[in-house]
User: Fold these one by one.
Assistant:
Number 1:
Amino acid sequence: MVGWRTGCLILACLVSGCGGSGGDSVLYDEPAGDDPDKGQTVDDEFVARADIRGTDQLYAYRPDSPYANVLRDCALVDRSEEACSLEVLPFITQATPDFSREDILDRLLVTHDWMGVRFEQLLAEAPEYMVTLFGSLTSIAIGSTVRPSNYWGGTGGIQLDPENLWLSVEEKATVSLEEDYRSDYGKDLNYWAFGTLRRGSQPASYYYSLTSTDERTLNDIRIPVYRLFYHELAHAVDYLPSASVPTLDARLTPAAALAANEQYWLSPRLYLDLPLYSEELQALAQVSYKGQEATAAQRNYSPAQVGFLMAGDGAAKYYGYSTHREDFATLFATIMIKRDFDVDYYMAFVQKPEDEEDYVCSELAVGWGVRNRIADPLVIPRAKWVVESIYGFSSEIDAFFANSLGQQSQMTEGLDWCSNRDGQSTIAGKLASDASRAALDARARIQLEGERLDNEH
């Protein structure tokens, strides 16, 4: 690859999936657009769903693609052994080593044309060192009911949730309202994890409701979508780094070919060289992100105790403890968004409010939190390892890590999340800390809910 130059989970993610903003299984939801009463209704408060299409209605965005006749069938299998061989649908870089953006678009499936248009717009603006990563994919699918976004080694493809891509009311009406299947995980734990991207005292991006009449611009979605791209592409490159490509056996399915080249996988090597050490956090992440039942001891962990564990280890995000693969991907996505946009990742563990459905930010006391997590001395060498494993060693990478990360700073324990996030002197901080629920307007509430990591966004 070019750009910035170029005992573990042997088949777990290959046959189940790696979520990025998503989880560990590919979702194949039934179509939800057959009810004639489900038309689009727009008023001041609500946009109803219209023309929701299941993944069985995906089609090639480019009908003249050389893979148009096989793309859908190859990308939508239920079991990895049913996948097409790489002779039928090869990885992009396997078919065309010097591939272009046009070759990537030839692998795109959508349920609505606007999804392809939006992907094409963002791909056109993407830096070359991001574009090169798409070579480790066989397909990209964007559909109404995809949730969460995910990579699956069974097909060597990614699926993207269009919640990240819509701009207009008409577009958002075609995006499913189905909740992420992980939304109830970790309900018995005594803390919430919060995280957000910030540029100084301002959000680097905003969360938007799928049911309101709010619209947004391409600039509003650029940072979250590129973060999503980096995350899912990190999964793909983890399994298929550039050194692995020449030795792929095209007679095999993607899962079998990737497994045969296991010695090239990146995240297992990260764990040999720079492992995460906290067994407690790894076990807690299985509760938060895999749905395991919490033990009595885990239910008693305070936000401060969980934060103490995080402070002594090198993950970029709490989600990184869910699997080795997610650790690798979260490190990469966090550092690349810092590089591209100079935004900082803030994270904290907070006390859960008494009423989890009706609360204000003043109830979310921080037990432990930091600003600019990627600049933590324990995180930096692991993030650098990941970047260099993908792009190779370079003076540019060295200079970026030496000069451009900034400093990590601690949040104030006992102060609420919003005040720690914004600074107590800001208007937003004062509003969010007001005891009256009326002080939290609709926009602030959506932002707060989006920053709450009940599942990884």
Number 2:
Amino acid sequence: MGGIKGIILDKDGTLFNYGEVWGPILSDAIAKGLAKARMPESRKHECISDFCRVVGVDGNGKTYPDGIIFRHDKLLLATLRILRITFRYHMNPWRVWNSVKAIIKHEGFPTEEQLEKIDFPYVEETIKALHDRGYILGIVTTDTDESTDLFLSRMGIKEYISFIRTKNSETHPKPNPEAIKEFCKEYGLESQSIAVIGDTVVDMEFAKEGKAGYRIAVLTGSGDRERLSECADAVYPSLWDIITDPILFP
């Protein structure tokens, strides 16, 4: 593990606290989508709460590790959970499905407005510290090009990132290891010299499938310490805490 030369980071939930940033945005989108699907007014709060749990985050920033946003590999199970909610509250299934698609695609979200309200402590400092130690840094995310660029600019780290793969890239999404292979090929690196930093089990599976040499999990996304501890080489409370990592900062 001592020969790490490149680092691939996830974005949402890794660079920053997922619930803090996306909780208000997604819960608002969920409420609007379910209203269009004719959820019963008398059970409005209960319905929104159940749906937030399936998606993975609520308006208070609480995260649920088994939500769609954290377990992209469990979409079939999530679909069944959504159908159960749809029938439980007697909603229009087609409108519910359209709402789900909009949420997954991040369509119509007031992301820029939300970002203006949030500080990102230690992100620029941590990424700069990694960059200054000579690591080649990449971002692999399921977010869009536009949103990713907005986040990196807002956090002040765009200049330090050499490699980016997003939802709009032709690269297969995580946990498929194609992005790791492309990263290695572009910079002439062996997969064992790559570290992957993420917040979900999918990120760790991505690292394993890509034969990355070092897997680091942070708890600012899914917060699933138990499962992450089983598949990561190291687990830290946040990105800032990796500056104490003996492998990356010997």
Number 3:
Amino acid sequence: MTKLWAGRTEAETAQLADDFNSSIAFDSRMYKEDITGSMAHAAMLGAKGIISQAEADTLITGLETILDDLRNGALQIDPKAEDIHMFVEQVLTARLGDVGKKLHTARSRNDQVALDFRLYLRGEIDELAELTKKLATVITDKAEQYKDAIMPGYTHLQRAQPVTFGHQLMAYAFMLLRDLDRLMDCRRRLNLSPIGCCALAGTTYDTDREMEARALGFDGIVLNSIDGVSDRDFAAELCAALSIEMMHLSRLSEELILWSSWEFQFIELPDAYTTGSSIMPQKKNPDMAELVRGKTGRVYGDLMGILTVLKGLPLAYNKDMQEDKEGVFDACDTAKMCLSVMAGMLPGMKARIDKMRKAASEGFINATDLADYLVTKGLPFRSAYKISGALVGKCIKEGKTLDTLSLEEYQQAEKLIEADVYEHIDLDTCVQKRASAGGTSVSSVEKQIDSVRRSLGQYHGEND
């Protein structure tokens, strides 16, 4: 295939160099964006009289035909082409002759690839946002189902205070809301058109960049032509947002793995999202959660890759920037798959409420409530804390719990303790008393659920 940049040099490039230089293997996924952008460019060229309206109409029709042929399989992308941009233009020229050669007027591959990349990632962000909303909804629904199921809350992976399973799950719902905000922020900064920046310095033609931007759904144009072709902040920012989101999914995965283990037995994951062992028939392995946890590392790597590519580049365009796509594409593909798997797995997750409550009753996680009770009797908190700790120590030595200590034993430790202590340290009471904003009581969790659902509703149809 003849190279569109041929003319400056006489010798043919080596086949190895051609293979090394080619990006068609991965940028071909942007064919729709490339053709759509070219159609908008042709329309602008015709409207401004840079080419005739008849020529513009011919180009647009030819591009529409190529798009249809690629979609229905009548045309196959040539793997020998240098990139998707040259492939489309060469097919167009082969079909239309000299008219096809006019499409590239007043633009460069530099601004063309920047345009395609922004258009493609804008679509990816919209898809990622929908998947994030779906998972947040699934988690919120599951939290409502278990809003009153008592379990131990942990710090340092040690049983700390009683919480509800719904409260624990809602922490992840709020993480996903922040992930959604980051995606939308990234989309807003990305949604400026670079087309018309040309190679780096703009063009001598009387173009209308705003017309092209409006036609392609952009909010405006990049105002500096050098920045327009050299900026890849949006790609790095998207990888950063996805790295944080994958970190959240990885933390959730870790808890699902722990909770489903024989040591915890807090949950049972659906059979459809677990595997077995080749030699141990008793095993039910949480492989999907483990893979989500593992795939987080590759998204981190994608972020470091794009940051490293960009860190030392002089302005404006450099061929290094061809390395901007594979990592970002991988980050998007990986995050979409992980979000989809999580959203498919969690509806079938069952909480073993009895196991959760039993664990909550055995870890002295009502010790803080005992201290708070003593404060209500007039003791300073630090004194109450010391007495509560001493009673926990007594229980450990004697194989008891705070619930099974007799009133006489309590009063030996502190004469202010009365029979109402048992009500105050009851697990249900401990949970329901924590009705402060953001707390673990059922009423507080219900408010959190309502808040997340309202926030998710604000995003509904935003990018339709």
